[in-house]
Design brief:
Blueprint lengths: L17 H29 L10 H16 L3 H4 L1 H5 L3
Length: 88
């Protein structure tokens, strides 16, 4: 027996809650990647303007990169990384 189509079948479904979050996190990841790329590329050029001797530029550039990683790793539990890394 044939059933007639209802109007509800042709209405668009609402976007589920995770789709906007994926877009937001993708945008945030892109912005973060661009920021760190620009920072690592231009820090050695900007440090002499701040009064750092040319011979110390490599040291201070490396220190800034190491410091950002050292501060970021302890903050990973706040983002839930250890809880989610083991899931398959």
């Amino acid at each position: 027996m044939l059933r007639s189509a209802t109007a509800d079948q042709f209405l668009p479904r609402p976007i589920s809650g995770w789709v906007p979050l994926v877009g937001l996190f993708s945008l945030a990841g892109f912005v973060e990647t661009v920021f760190w790329g620009q920072m690592s590329a231009f820090t050695p050029l900007y440090l002499p303007r701040l009064g750092v001797a040319q011979s110390d530029v490599a040291t201070w550039t490396g220190a800034s990169v190491a410091l950002s990683g050292a501060l970021g790793v302890p903050l990973l539990p706040l983002w839930g990384a250890p809880r989610r890394c083991g899931r398959a």
